[in-house]
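Slide 14.
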Amino acid sequence: MLLPVVRALLGLGQTPPAQHVCSEPVVLLSHTGGKMLDVLGMDSVSESVYREMLAHPQDGVVGLASRLSLTEDEVRTALDALAELALVWHSAEDPQSFHAVDPHLAAEILLARQRAELAAQEQRVHEAQAAAAQLRSEYVKDSPDHEAHRLTGTESIREYLAALYDSVEEELLTFAPGGAQTEANLRSARPQAERLLTRGVRMRTVYLDSVRNDAATVAHADWLAAGGGLIRSVPSLPNRMIICDRKTAIVAVDPDDTAAGAVVVRTAGVVSSLHALFENVWQAAQPMSATAPPADSQKLNAQQLEVLRLLSQGHTDEYVGARLGVSARTARRIATKLMEHLGARSRFQTGVYAAAKGLIRF
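Slide 15: predicted structure.
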């Protein structure tokens, strides 16, 4: 419903765009009486300059300043703002010459930017909720008799899990973020996993796609699968989590530092919600033996699509790498290839182009 309003504000009518760069004057609706596109992130001066460029595409900085009664510095500042919004571009023949992006495409770009900012705000809200939950968890009584209690330190977590695994009867579900595991950790995990599988416990584990590049982790996944375990992977995971028999959930206090501790939850409603989260991720995950790079080099894989989604939300290479279980350098390399693939000039523009092509959804 919002797009027709934007088209009306820009005076587009119902005529589809013929090309991306305006070479003919465009007749615009009158906008006397104040700003119309500030809701989409464009200030009044930039809006006036953009409209004037559409109406008089041959005008340079001097001409625009004269028509709008602005100084040349004010016009150049507005052009910089429009360039940041990807609504104007420099001529290859004359760096001093600017061209306005076709208003139909401009409407899509502005809307995509607003959606990206909304998604980033929603992400910040989720992170705030997680921080609030962590704060509450720090003040619950550390007693196994309570519906929630905290485990502090790596050794405490290991001891608790060892005792808990001995009591598992039917099912053990695991989110395993963090990327590839060390061979020492994998060897130490085998005896317990073998006991669980021998007792007939159903084990389902979700790793990150990045572990497919680690021979030791792949070998461990193959070993689990040979014993009856089910292994899948996804581009990113929200947190480290273990659910036993749909009765007890163990969640890392800090998703970026599992050594900081964990919270044990037995509240039925909370465990049920966490179980539903696991099932949703499991359905979208790929079996470890079935994922391979796409035969079509033009097709993006699940990990690349996740990088696009994170870039569109304004996240750094360090954050993207942590979510994917890879180094920031690897995340930067993936992002650079995606920019080249989409013909984008910036990280944010990469996300905008991906949204316009329907590769990601906000």
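Speaker note: The radius of gyration is 27 Å.
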